[in-house]
Amino acid sequence: MKIARTSFLIVVVLALAWMFFQLFMHYDSREGLNPVARYYAEQGPDETGAANLVTSVVVTYRGLDTLGEVTILFLTAAIIGILLRTERGSRLKPVRENSEFLTTASRILIPVIALFGVYIFLNGHLTPGGGFQGGAVLASSFILLLMAFTGRRMGHRILDFTESISGFSFVLIALLGVVLAAGFLDNSILPPGRFGTLFSAGAIPLIYSLIGLKVGAELSNIILELNQIQGRDDEPGS
Amino acid sequence: MIPILLIIILAIIMVVMALVAIHHKNLQVAVVASGIISLFASVIYVFLAAPDVAITEASIGSALTVGIFFYVLNKIRHEDSAN
């Protein structure tokens, strides 16, 4: 029995090795871009007005995929919230004080990191980065906030409010594209502006800022849930 | 050809860190090692001219994931000591 299993595994591994060897031997790298990529690279700056080509693809050409990604992230945050939230209104026991170094450094660093996150998603159409990256940087500043000031209780309300308002506005702007412009998530509902400036590329900066706020609020919410369930277990008698 | 040499060195460190993350007894060391993998991967992405992906990898892979892992580890340790 054991010999049969081992020999079966060896045959599978050999078949995989043969497959990947064939793949490796017959692989020839493409010289140019494929037609779709060439269309994006040549027409993208003229059609969308975004200096960052990746952003013009993510927000405009493949905007529906981005909406799907945001929805998946929202579902993840909601499910984590449902699984971890057991009782409402339980108070956090003040844990032991953090070191002076951490709190003092956090006071200086948290605003800078948060500002950098906002910068990333506001300039998403000009420089590398965008809503998802900026939102993740915002959430990492939130981790530092929770770690440095442990005793303080944070409310869900502002995070929930930010998340729902930005998600709603995102879909609303996308639908405005159907009414005012060529279709769903068309960015030409706002004037294109001068190429390469902050207020350019139509609705792209607006959409990406909303995505950034939404992603940042969702990730922060996940971290807050994890932090609170840990705090609850610290309470005596629970 | 300094970038290629640097990329090879970074890749070797990443493989070593992956082995550390799998085999180390202490879970906290393993989490930090997996964070280092993401950090070096983001450096490689910059060299491969993908700054967008590099920012994502650096912020999510090496900051958020490590933070969430530490929260969960802390929670597991509390439950272990309670039982």
In short:
The complex is a heterodimer of chains A (238) and B (83). With 238 residues, chain A is mainly α.
Can you give a write-up of this model?
The complex is a heterodimer of chains A (about 240) and B (about 80). With about 240 residues, chain A is mainly α. Chain A has eight helices and no strands. Chain A has one domain. Helix content of chain A is about 70%, strand content about 0%. Chain A is extended. Chain B is mostly helical and about 80 residues long. In chain B, helix 1 packs antiparallel against helix 2. The N and C termini of chain B lie far apart (about 55 Å). The mean pLDDT of chain B is about 85. The interface of A and B includes residues 129, 133, 143, 147 and 222 of A.
Chain-wise SSE layout:
The complex is a heterodimer of chains A (238) and B (83).
Chain A: H1 2-25, H2 35-48, H3 53-61, H4 63-84, H5 100-122, H6 131-148, H7 157-180, H8 204-234
Chain B: H1 2-23, H2 27-47, H3 51-82
Helix pairs in contact in B: 1-2, 2-3
Individual helix count of chain A:
8
Largest interface: A-B, 23 and 18 residues
Poorly predicted tracts of residues of chain A: 233-238
Poorly predicted regions of chain B are none
Features:
heterodimer, A: 238 residues, mainly alpha, 0% strand, extended, disordered C terminus, B: 83 residues, 3 helices, elongated
